[in-house]
Design goal:
Largest sheet of chain A: 6 strands, mixed
Distance between the termini of chain B: 39 Å
Radius of gyration of chain A: 14 Å
Largest sheet of chain B: 3 strands, antiparallel
Shape of chain A: globular
Structural class of chain A: alpha/beta
Number of domains of chain A: 1
Helix content of chain A: 40-55%
Strand order of the largest sheet of chain B: 1-2-3
Radius of gyration of chain B: 29 Å
CATH topology of the largest domain in chain B: Clc chloride channel
CATH architecture of the largest domain in chain B: Orthogonal Bundle
CATH class of the largest domain in chain B: Mainly Alpha
CATH superfamily of the largest domain in chain B: Clc chloride channel
Number of strands of chain B: 6
CATH architecture of chain A: 3-Layer(aba) Sandwich
Helix content of chain B: 55-70%
Oligomer: heterodimer
Number of helices of chain A: 6
CATH topology of chain A: Mannitol-specific EII, Chain A
CATH class of chain A: Alpha Beta
């Protein structure tokens, strides 16, 4: 799956009220419930949270990229959530509003690297990030990522 | 010199009253023997040689080699003393009883053994011990044939396969020293002193060229004949003593009609170069000698086939020269000169060492005039023979011993013996930036990921290389995200055979070593394995460390 295909297919939820990092991640992972590419949504969410404990992947500018490479996904999956208010992430409690949560099948190391790198490249653009924070519907949100 | 003198003494014992007055060599002795003794002496010699090998078989060679070629090429420079001595005693019985086999084998083995023991006593490193054994071999050849240059070239070209000055220099020193010592006792006369032959016309080079071609074409058949002898004796499983006795008996039966077959063939070469007699007789003797050599060699008698090969080449060259002289009588060709050239060309073709053969022929005859035709015929013979059969007189032995030594090392050496503690391991939580920096400090393209003392996987430089210029990834990814969990690893108790199999299925230059429960112990690199097999381990093995600490 290419990065544009991944973005186009990703469920997007905007301005969701969450208070904590765990809630935000659980809510984002919840967007993938029933998704064909996932073997076990709850297990996948636990894998992401467990990975989050080791070293929360924060890009800065209010962006978090929680992810997990696990046997609980069959193909690359991504869900996007924009919180209504900034949520403290990581041990330093950095404020986050944009959450790009993705799962990678266990042995797909190259795809893991490629997906993370592609997201980081897109979200390095401050103008695009600002647009992502201001856009009002999911389709235009996805378009901004292409 | 000691072996040579001991062989002469034992030959006198075997011959008994047959030796009365001056004799030129074994051929004369056998001519003087009654018929029963011509059969009995080689058979008895074979029996004694075989019994020696049988009785000595309890001295298993264990870790050390008994062959100087193996010790130099794949071994650690340590020759097994007892087994080498047993083989030399066996060769002593064979040689002294008139077996059709060269004496250079035991001479070289004994010289190499002395060098190996000296290297051990002096505590030389592995590489220097190997060099010592090679020097011993060069000294053995040089003293056997009174040929200092060829002695050095024999080892350099055939055993080492290199004329690099680093190795060649010590060979020259040892072979010169050995020759000087031998000459002090036996004099400096050429072994095969030959009449001086001169080239009357450059046209004469044409038949010599043809001779080279003919030698190249027939040498593979000669090598095949020798190998077939081995095959015949392995058809029926016989005890060693019986095999060697049968080999001796075959020589004795041939000696009944043609006592010329007895011995290594040195006298025959000398006769060919001076008074060869009619070509028909030479043909018969060549055939009988080939059969005798095949029987002796095939029976497993310890010794060399260098001198028998010289005779075969000389006889073939002489017969070729006779035919050429009959074909173009106007050119005044001298068949004996063809015998000389044939000796060099056939040696070059059979041994696969043309430089050694050319120099050897010069040193054996000290006849400079013959050098140019020998160079031409030798090189042509070498290329022709190699194009037909890439194997040489010694390649089979080298391959067999090399393969056996390598197989022994591979099947007995454990992964744990070569393993080194790997300090460049990554915890799973190492951030991407630190992973990249770890590769900068490592010579490997894979880094092990270890947590709680257990092996988890490896990070491949190949995987992360395209992303090393992306600083954003430094904090987004950790080693665990980019490691390969399905990467093969080795267990410490696996043999090197199994390790090489695993190395063969992966592109990794380094594999992690684990114990029970995936406990990470260290790593082994391809280089470690190759260096060990090449006899140059970069470090002590765990086993030797344990031995030393126990001492």
């Amino acid at each position: 799956m290419t990065f544009p295909q991944l973005c186009t297919a990703a469920p997007v939820a905007l301005d969701i009220p969450t208070a904590t990092e765990n809630d935000a991640i659980t809510a984002t992972a919840g967007l993938l419930t029933g998704w064909l590419g996932i073997v076990d949504t709850a297990g996948f969410r636990s894998a992401v949270l467990e990975r989050q404990q080791i070293n929360p992947p924060l890009l800065g500018n209010g962006i978090a990229l929680p992810h997990a490479r696990t046997a609980l996904v069959r193909e690359i999956v991504m869900a996007i959530l924009r919180t209504r208010d900034p949520v403290p992430f990581g041990p330093q409690g950095l404020p986050v509003r944009l959450i790009f949560l993705y799962g990678i099948p266990l042995h797909h190391v190259s795809e893991h690297l490629a997906t993370t790198a592609a997201l980081a490249r897109k979200l390095r653009d401050a103008g695009r990030v600002q647009a992502l924070l201001e856009t009002t519907d999911a389709d235009s949100f996805r378009q901004l990522l292409l | 010199m000691g072996f040579r003198e001991a062989t002469e003494w034992l030959h006198h014992v075997f011959a008994g009253p047959a030796i009365s007055g001056h004799v030129e060599g074994y051929v004369d002795t056998f001519r003087a023997m009654p018929l029963w003794q011509r059969v009995a002496v080689p058979a008895l010699g074979g029996l004694l040689a075989g019994l020696t090998l049988t009785l000595g078989s309890r001295f298993k060679a264990k870790e050390n080699s008994t062959d100087y070629m193996e010790a130099v090429v794949v071994g650690d420079g340590n020759l097994a003393v007892k087994v080498s001595l047993v083989k030399s005693v066996s060769a002593w019985f064979s040689s002294a009883s008139g077996a059709s086999i060269g004496r250079e084998g035991p001479l070289v083995t004994l010289a190499s053994l002395g060098a190996s023991v000296a290297g051990r006593i002096l505590g030389f490193t592995l590489a220097r011990k190997r060099q010592m054994v090679a020097c011993g071999a060069a000294a053995g050849i040089a003293s056997a044939y009174n040929a200092p240059i060829a002695g050095a070239f024999f080892v350099a070209e055939i055993v080492l396969g290199s004329l690099a000055m680093e190795a060649f220099g010590p060979l020259v020193v040892s072979s010169v020293t050995a020759t000087l010592a031998t000459r002090a006792h036996y004099g400096s006369a050429a072994i095969y002193e030959a009449p001086v032959f001169t080239l009357h016309s450059n046209l004469e080079l044409i038949p010599y060229l043809a001779l080279g071609l003919a030698c190249g074409l027939t040498a593979p058949a000669y090598l095949k004949l020798l190998r077939s002898g081995e095959k015949v004796f392995t058809l029926v499983p016989l005890p060693v003593w019986l095999r060697l006795m049968l080999g001796g008996l075959a020589v004795g039966l041939l000696a009944l009609f043609h006592p010329e077959v007895a011995g290594n063939g040195r006298v025959l070469v000398f006769t060919l170069l001076h008074d060869p007699g009619p070509w028909e007789a030479v043909t018969v003797i060549l055939i009988c000698k080939l059969l005798a050599t095949t029987a002796t060699f095939g029976s497993g008698a310890v010794g060399g086939v260098f001198t028998p090969t010289l005779f075969t080449g000389a006889a073939f060259g002489y017969l070729f020269g006779t035919a050429a002289a009959a074909l173009v009588p106007a050119w005044g060709l001298e068949p004996r000169a063809f015998g000389l050239v044939g000796m060099g060309a056939f040696l070059a073709a059979a041994t696969g060492a043309p430089v050694m053969a050319i120099i050897m022929l010069f040193e054996l005859t000290l006849n400079y005039q013959i050098l140019m035709p020998v160079m031409l015929a030798g090189v042509v013979g070498y290329y022709t023979c190699r194009s037909l059969d890439p194997r040489s007189l010694y390649s089979d032995a080298l391959n067999r011993k090399g393969a056996a030594a390598v197989a022994w090392h591979l099947s007995t050496l454990k992964v744990g013996d070569l393993m080194s503690p790997d300090t460049a391991v990554l915890p799973p939580g190492t951030v991407f930036g630190d992973v990249a920096r770890a590769f900068l400090q490592s010579r490997h393209t894979f880094l092990n990921v270890v947590s709680e003392g257990r092996f988890r996987g490896v990070v491949s430089l190949h995987d992360i290389k395209p992303y090393l210029d992306q600083p954003d990834l430094e904090s987004l990814l950790i080693a665990r995200d980019v490691m390969r969990e399905d990467f093969p690893s080795l267990r410490a108790d696996q043999t090197m055979y199994e390790a090489l199999d695993v190395f063969g299925r992966t592109e990794a230059d380094c594999l992690s070593v684990t114990g029970p429960g995936d406990v990470f112990l260290g790593s082994v690199t391809r280089t470690d394995v190759l260096l060990f097999l090449a006899g140059k381990p970069k470090k002590e093995t765990a086993q030797s460390r344990m031995t030393k600490s126990a001492v």
